[in-house]
Amino acid sequence: MSVRRVMMSADAVGGVWTFALQLAEGLRRHGIEVLIAVLGPRPDSGRLRAAGRVPGLTLAHGDFPLEWMAEANDANQEAAGRWLLGLAHEFAPDIVHLNHFCHGHLPWPAPCVVVAHSCVATWYEHVRGTAPGPEWDGYRRRVARGLAGAALVTAPTRSMLDDLRRLYGHVGRVAVVHNGRDPEAFRGTRKQPYVLCAARAWDEAKNVAALDAAAPASRWPIRVAGDVRHPEGGSARFDHVQLLGALGEGGMASQFAHAAIYVLPARYEPFGLSVLEAAFAGCALVLGDIPSLRELWEDTACYVPSDDPAAIARTLNALVDDRPKLHAHGMRARRHARRYTADRMVARWRDTYRDMAREGGRPCVS
């Protein structure tokens, strides 16, 4: 059965936005029309311009808090569900693709896939070493219901799927579908003596604080690109890294192109699009030693204990002091990154959608 229309949810806070636009652009080349329903904060002008460059993309915005935000509750999430159902009945998609959890159980007019990009419960476990408190009980209940109700649950790594199963129990049919980016958008050039990190600096999972502590001992300056302002208020502060702020696509591509080393001492990272973008640009990778990043990058990266600034600085300096090794690591990362191209991602999603449509919401399991 052919798939002609896909309705997708997204938000404009983190990597889900980049993922959704990349996928929508690729699906359009296969003749698939896409509606993206944006929840949470309204996309800024830069994100809207990026969406405008995707041919035929339809964008809708619903001013509802994202499911992980403090103000999310049953009432506003039910209202968001009604809005999404209304869009679905108007758009008449062949597949509903939710990049969030809590509406997977709704009576959609087409098979529904829920994609696990991140989760509060798994974030707490990996970042703070504990389960979220009782104030998150409603969130956990809504997530569990959405996971159980979806025709298919996917994640970009097996590690993320394993976490979901362990914390939420039975989640039905599952599959790993890797994320992807266009390698032509991230070309390397003559490398310069600096270390780059690109991350939501306010997110403890990205662990920019460890980089800030490592920076005084690093022989090369460490630059951090990304927003320091939390979407719910407040800002992260750092003393030693060079803060570049939130950069547009062109600015980020330039930073990746010139950086010799990319570092992300993440405590929690279900995929890490920034790591992939850096690898395409030929950066040597220094990553937090966590299961998901090991799963994706195998022996092509240098791994560091996420909360050991001294070890991070030593690893960076070892690459700085051994230029042949630095160059070799960058080339290995670039070759390995070819596993995660946008074309491969789009082809896998197209096939997944076709399986779902053919089976009436009962896709093949991988």
Description:
By secondary structure, this protein is α/β, with parallel strands linked by helices. It is built from 13 helices and 13 strands. The longest helix has 18 residues, at 74-91. The two termini are 20 Å apart. Residues 362-366 have low confidence and may be disordered.
List the helices and strands and how they pair.
Blueprint: E1 5-11, H1 15-29, E2 33-39, H2 45-52, E3 58-62, H3 74-91, E4 95-98, E5 112-115, H4 120-127, H5 137-149, E6 152-155, H6 158-168, E7 174-176, E8 192-198, H7 208-214, E9 222-225, E10 242-245, H8 249-258, E11 259-264, H9 273-280, E12 284-288, H10 291-297, E13 302-304, H11 309-321, H12 323-337, H13 342-358
Parallel strand pairs: 1-2, 1-4, 2-3, 4-5, 5-6, 6-7, 8-9, 8-11, 9-10, 11-12, 12-13
Helix pairs in contact: 1-13, 7-11, 9-12
